[in-house]
Amino acid sequence: MNDGAIELDAVEGHFRLRRTNPGGKVEEILLSDSGVMPVNQIGIGTNADKSNINLKMIDPGGFAVAFAVPIAVIKLFQRGLEKRVAELEKKMTIK
């Protein structure tokens, strides 16, 4: 089963996560401090053949963006999230 292609690109100090499905439709989201959609819920799972992690983000209005993300990209997210969570926790204890 071909889920399409996924790309993570640096764009002017931010990151763009883009998925192109097998039919050529492109879905993308800009990951930045100010330009990313507010996320109320996150869903994480695996696809049928267990080759990708399914990542779904849902905003407060119910709009959802879903990606089939290769494990190599998930590991990059993991490292970045660990660092960012530590920074946020430090800011929260200072207040």
Instruction: Output the number of helix runs.
Output: 1
The strand order across the widest sheet is: 1-2-3
Number of domains: 1
Percentage of residues in DSSP E strands: 35-45%
**Radius of gyration, Cα only, in angstroms?**
15 Å
Question: Main β-sheet: number of strands, strand sense, barrel status?
Answer: 3 strands, antiparallel
| Computed structural class | alpha+beta
Helix content: 25-40%
The count of β-strands is: 6
Overview of this protein structure:
The protein is of the alpha+beta class and 95 residues long. It has one domain. Helix content is 25%, strand content 42%. Strand 5 (52-58) and strand 6 form a beta hairpin. The longest helix is centred in the C-terminal third of the chain and has 24 residues, at 71-94.
Give a short overview.
The chain starts with a strand and ends with a helix. 5% of the residues are buried. It has one helix at 71-94; strands at residues 5-11, 14-20, 26-31, 41-46, 52-58, 64-70.
Summary tags:
95 residues; three-stranded antiparallel β-sheet; globular
Question: What's the layout of helices and strands?
Answer:
Layout (H helix, E strand, L loop, with lengths): L4 E7 L2 E7 L5 E6 L9 E6 L5 E7 L5 E7 H24 L1
